[in-house]
Every structure is written in C-alpha cells, then in structure tokens.
Specification:
Layout (H helix, E strand, L loop, with lengths): L41 H35 L16 H14 L4 E8 L5 E7 L12 E6 L7 H16 L4 H9 L1 E5 L4 H9 L34 H12 L2 E8 L2 E6 L17 H14 L24 E3 H4 L6 H8 L3 E8 L9 H16 L9
Parallel strand pairs: 3-4, 3-5, 5-8, 6-7
Antiparallel strand pairs: 1-2, 2-4, 6-8
Helix pairs in contact: 2-3, 3-10, 7-10
The structure holds (2-guanidinoethylmercapto)succinic acid and zinc ion.
(2-guanidinoethylmercapto)succinic acid (GEM) binds next to helix 8 and strand 8.
C-alpha cells in the first residue's frame, strides 16, 4: 500500500544571525542573575502559583464565612445560657459585693453598680442596673425594680435576684428574649435591702425570725409612711429612707419585693382605714390582680390550689390562683408596696416565694428554676403587650 504522502515541514531559511540549535538539546531559558532557583517548567510554576492563590482565597473565604456564621448563630440562638450548680450558694455581704462588682466590671455595656445609701451598720445598699444604656433614663423606656431581703432572714429572693443578674448579663446579645427585655426596659435590682439583718440571720444558722428586723430592731415592712395610720415604728430607718429617696429620684412604674414564709403574690392595699383584715382595693385593682397573676401563673406551683408544701411547721394557706389582696390576707401598716403606689407611679407587689425563709443552699437551684420564667414574665408586663 503506498505510503501517504507527507509534506515536508516548512523549515524557515536560516539567517546568519540565528544561533544554530542542535536537535534534542533542551531549550535554555534565560537565567536570572540573582533570585531563587528557576523552575524547570514555567507552566507548572504558573499552575502551582494559581493553585496557591486559590487556596489562599479559599482559606480567607472560609474564615470570613466562619465568622459570619458564628455571628448569625449568635443572633438566632434561642437557648439561653445557664449557670452551673456551683454558683448556687448563699452569698454573705462580702461575697455579694464581690459578685456584683465583678459583673459590673465584666458587663460594662449593660450593667452598672450603684448604691442608694447605707444600712444602720454601714453596709452599702447595692443596686445593679441592667439596661442597654446604663446610667441614663431614656424617654419612653420604663423603669422597673426588684427588691429582696427587706426581711434579713428571708434569703431566697436575695439569691434568686443574684442569679437573675448573672442570667441577664450572660444572655444579653445571645438570647433574643433577654436582649429585647434589656433593650426596652431599665431594670434596677436591690438584692438586699436589709444586709445587717441577713448577717444576723446567717450567723444564727437561719433560725425562724432572727434577722427579720434591721440592726435597730425595726421591721422595715412596717416602717414606711402609711396612708391611713401614723407610724408604729418611729421615723424611717436609714434603709427605709434610702428606698424612699430612690423611689423619688427614678420614675419607676413597676416593682416587686421578694419575701418568704408563704407562696403567693400579694397586691395592695395592705391595710384599710378600719384596721380590719378585709379586702382593700386600690382604684387599679384590675391591673394589680393581673400583675400578681402574671407572676403566679408563670410559677410552676404558686397558682395551684393544692401546692406541694415542704414545711410542716408552716401552715399551708390556700389562695385562689396564687394571689391575694394584702389587707384581706392580714392587715399591716407601714408596708412598702402601698407606699410605692400612694407616693409614686410604681405598681409594686409582694412576692412570697415559699415556706422556707433560709433554706439549705442545695435547694437554691430549684428555687431559681421555679422563679426564672416568672421573673421575666413579670417584667415583660411593661413591654409590647403591656398593661402599664
Ligand atoms: C408579710 S409580707 C406583707 C404582706 N402583706 C399583707 N398585708 N399581708 C409581712 O411583711 O409581714 C410576710 C413576710 O414577711 O413575708
Ligand atoms: Zn417578709
């Protein structure tokens, strides 16, 4: 078979300036005088560099993507941060002061520690403000307060509020519900209104009534000016005076004071002109009933007719829906909640968190769990679906 005719390649005519190149001799590329050793194959080198550049770009993008995802993840997280059980201890004055200072230092963007005065024995009445603009009253932003331990031997509220402070700080910017609450309300928390009474109760092992009164022997919940009767406890004590001035200086609209010895949300009035224990309604009775119910309903047992009851020595009382009018329950004069309502715009209720006044620290996690939701719901009463 004849071979296919192949044209001879068109070899250009050499000029005399051209360097003759022997066939099979490797092509010699110009070698730089200085610099790194050249690669033998420039195409490979370019390909390698492209690959490196791609990898770098990918890495950078990966980091950027990771950052973005983290941010988004933080924003949409719906599970709140919880504290370990080691944090549930009874805090004496020193420990409480240390904890409050620590949180104010570490959460400067939302937490501010101030004091409203001092106790008889010169302990500071610490208040932690939690808000998105600490130190400033913003027009339209409701001012709210929580007060505990006005009876020094009733310590559950004190520990629950210390937990609440930590909970708000740790969850702000993480958990939408807390962020919204802190962004829209200015929360003031006084974990101990009677720090002297607390120290007396704690050093006595938390026996029933030791430390209830302040260091001058005055029951602070009988020491506020009363609308119907003259004072039975003399002039306002330093702790009472401090709270009165505080109420005067900040336009509070909502408040709660935490006690123990019963399980109920108690609302004003605490007395009536007859001095008898019978229902004494404020002109805002419906609002107060709703506020009290918001707490008792959000609490797992407070609203129940047949509450599980741990303390044999404290008679169990039955309150419909877990709420009661103060004067109907038993009449008191010089109470703090009535003073708030009569002398300011603050709607205050008195929350009894359970039968035990100074329980073992091991039951504090349970008290916290029982009250966490109610603490949030109560403050949310001034929010979007507000009644105030
Ligand atoms: C109560 S709290 C006040 C309740 N108000 C009325 N009117 N009953 C007190 O101060 O005696 C009980 C407590 O200390 O927890
Ligand atoms: Zn009390």
């Amino acid at each position: 078979m004849p071979l296919k005719h192949v044209d001879k390649p068109n070899i250009p005519v050499k000029t005399k300036h051209e360097i003759p190149v022997k066939s099979k001799t490797p092509i010699a590329y110009p070698v730089p005088v200085k610099g790194p050793k050249p690669h033998l194959n420039p195409i490979k080198e370019i390909q390698q560099r492209v690959a490196q550049a791609k990898e770098l770009l990918m890495k950078k993008q990966h980091e950027e993507t990771k950052k973005l995802l983290n941010l988004l993840h933080k924003k949409v997280r719906s599970k709140e941060e919880t504290l370990s059980n080691d944090s549930f201890i009874h805090h004496n004055y020193e420990e409480m002061t240390w904890l409050l200072k620590d949180y104010a230092k570490n959460f400067k963007n939302i937490a501010r520690l101030y004091n409203i005065g001092s106790s008889v024995q010169n302990r500071k009445l610490w208040v932690m403000e939690i808000s998105n603009n600490p130190g400033k009253h913003e027009p339209g932003e409701p001012e709210v307060k929580y007060i505990a331990n006005m009876h020094g031997n009733e310590v559950v509220g004190r520990e629950v509020l210390l937990q609440f402070i930590q909970y708000l700080c740790l969850n702000y910017g993480q958990y939408r519900r807390v962020t919204d609450l802190v962004d829209t309300t200015r929360i003031h928390i006084l974990p101990s209104m009677n720090p002297d009474g607390y120290e007396m109760a704690a050093s006595d092992g938390g026996r029933w009534n030791i430390g209830r009164k302040n260091a001058d022997g005055v029951d602070l919940n009988r020491n506020f000016p009363d609308q119907f009767f003259p004072s039975t406890t003399g002039d306002p004590q330093p702790e009472t005076m401090a709270v009165m001035k505080w109420i005067d200086s900040i336009p509070f609209v909502l408040s709660a004071s935490f006690h123990s010895g019963a399980l109920v949300a108690n609302y004003p009035y605490d007395d009536n002109p007859s001095g008898q224990s019978s229902y004494s309604a404020t002109p805002d009775d419906d609002v107060f009933r709703q506020l009290a119910r918001s707490y008792s309903e959000a609490h797992p047992t407070m609203h129940l007719a047949n509450t599980p009851w741990k303390c044999k020595d404290v008679p169990r009382e039955h309150f419909i829906d877990g709420i009661t009018n103060g004067a109907k329950w038993f009449s008191i004069t010089g109470g703090m909640q009535d003073y708030n309502y009569v002398h300011s715009n603050a709607f205050e209720v008195t929350l009894e968190l359970g039968c035990e006044k100074f329980p073992n620290a091991s039951s504090l996690p349970e008290y916290w769990q029982d009250n966490k939701e109610a603490l949030l719901v109560y403050l949310e009463q001034v929010g979007t679906n507000c009644i105030l």
